[in-house]
From TrEMBL, chains A, B:
Pfam family, one: Acetyltransf_1
N-acetyltransferase domain: residues covered: 1-131
Keywords linked to the UniProt accession: Transferase
PROSITE patterns, per the entry: GNAT
Gene Ontology molecular function: any one: acyltransferase activity, transferring groups other than amino-acyl groups
InterPro entries noted in UniProt: Acyl_CoA_acyltransferase, GNAT_dom
Name this protein carries in UniProt: GNAT family acetyltransferase
Keyword Transferase tagged: yes
Coiled-coil stretches noted in the UniProt entry, renumbered to this chain: none
Length: 134, 134
């Protein structure tokens, strides 16, 4: 997904190893969940979901969690068939089922129109890379 | 802060109670930290900081944490003197001291130019309010 979005292989290789380590216990305990679509047993599209701890906020005054959508990916041969849209609908329903009423994601340029069409809007988030470890 | 940014009193009252409950244990265990500036013993400006769990990401491939800046506020009589800028510099240095190299925040329209001037940039975050509890 990150390569598809223009990431450099070197940084991605480092991240992939770290992400795999990070993911393993969270898949096991269910704190990272999601959906995979398969065609004849082969995965062709997927979406990752988490509930992230967040201070109660005007957008969710009673709740200290937000849904987070990540790792949305559809294999190139399976694009333009609405699979990502279906995955997003499954994701939204799953958040609601788990009692969460506010969710965020970070969109690639390619993904942005899809999310906008489903009622997602840009936020005021800003970020900075600092001199610390990364 | 949220009222200053145009929030409705009713939603803010709910949130404030929930936030206070949420904050108490986190102030105690140090997971919410920050800086307060005072004038003759009275607080006049403050900034809240957290380290939030996040999957290793191209912007921080080795780390599973990001810094988060929240609740930046300067009392009206103390604005236009650079206090928020000083608080942000303290925040960035504190993140680096704690070994974090990537941080995020959500800016009000009023705060945005300050953060931009310090090298912060908008992200691709998007959000949606769902039918679940909030």
């Amino acid at each position: 997904m990150f390569r598809d979005a223009g990431g450099r292989d070197e940084a991605l290789a480092t991240m992939t190893g770290q992400f795999r380590e990070w993911l393993r216990p969270r898949l096991r305990d269910g704190s990272y969940f999601g959906f995979v679509m398969s065609d004849d047993g082969a995965p062709v599209a997927g979406i990752g979901l988490m509930l992230i701890d967040w201070p109660p906020h005007p957008a969710h005054p009673m709740q200290d969690k937000r849904g987070y959508v990540l790792n949305v990916f559809v294999e190139p041969d399976y694009r333009k068939r609405g699979l990502a849209r279906e995955l997003m609908k499954l994701a939204e329903a799953e958040f609601v089922r788990r009692g969460v009423g506010y969710a965020v994601l970070h969109a690639t340029a390619k993904g942005r129109p899809l999310y906008q069409g489903l009622g997602w809007n840009g936020t005021t988030e800003m970020a900075k890379t600092l001199d610390g470890e990364r």
